[in-house]
Amino acid sequence: MKLIHTHTPETLDSELLAVCQQLVPQGIPEYVACRCPETGEPGSEAAVAGWVVTVWDAVLLQCVAQFVTETPQGRVYFSSLPQERILFIPDPSLSEKMTQSPRPAVQLSLSQRSEVKRFIAVSEEERSIMGRYPVRDGKIQLPADEAKLLGKLAREKESLAIRINLLLRAPDSPCLCGSGKKFRKCCKTRLARLA
C-alpha cells in the first residue's frame, strides 16, 4: 500500500498559492503540458529551471527542482510518466544547483500538525545523508552507521505517514490501496492497527 499519495493539484486555491509564494516569492505557478520524449526530444529550445510541485492533500507540497523546455508553442515538460500536465514554478536561482545530486527538493507543510512537521524534518535528514555520498550504478554506498540511521528514519517516516493518513485523510476519499472503495470501508481499520 502506498502511504504517500502526491499528485498534481487540479486547481490552485489561495492556500496553495500562499505556500508556493513561500518557495519562490516572485514566482508565478503555471501548468505546463507533458509530452513523452518520443513525441519530440528537446532540441535547441531553452531550458527553464524551476520547481515541479505535487500535493499530498491537506498534508504537504512536494517540490522538486526540474527543467522544462521553452518551445515556440510554450513550455513543455518531457516525461515518460502518464500525466497530462505538471504544476511548475519558474525559479532562475536553481540553474546552478541543478547538477547537484540529489537535485534540490523541498517539502512545505499544508498542516500545522506536529506529525507533518516531523515527517518533513525526517525527510530532510534522509536527503541530507544521501546527498553526502555519490550514487554509482543507481546505488549509494553508505557507512554502516549511516545505513542504520537511514533504516531508522525510513521506519519513522512510515509510522508518521500512517498516523498522518489516519488524522488527515477524509474517510470518504478513495482508499490508499487503489481498490476504489472508500478509505473508511477498506484499509483505515488495518492502518489503525498498525499505528
Briefly, what is this?
This protein has 195 residues and is an alpha+beta fold. Helix content is 31%, strand content 25%.
Question: What can you see in these coordinates?
Answer:
With 195 residues, the chain is an alpha+beta fold. It has two domains: 1-110, no CATH class; 111-195. It has four helices and eight strands. It has helices spanning 14-23, 114-131, 144-168, 188-194, and strands at residues 30-35, 46-56, 60-71, 74-78, 85-90, 105-109, 135-136, 139-140. The strands form two sheets. The chain has a five-stranded mixed barrel with strand order 1-4-3-2-5. The protein has a two-stranded antiparallel ribbon with strand order 7-8. Helix 3 packs across helix 4. The mean pLDDT is 89.
Key features?
195 residues; 2 domains; 5-stranded mixed β-barrel; two-stranded antiparallel sheet; 8 strands; alpha+beta
Topology:
Elements: H1 14-23, E1 30-35, E2 46-56, E3 60-71, E4 74-78, E5 85-90, E6 105-109, H2 114-131, E7 135-136, E8 139-140, H3 144-168, H4 188-194
Parallel strand pairs: 1-4
Antiparallel strand pairs: 1-5, 2-3, 2-5, 3-4, 3-6, 7-8
Helix pairs in contact: 2-3, 3-4
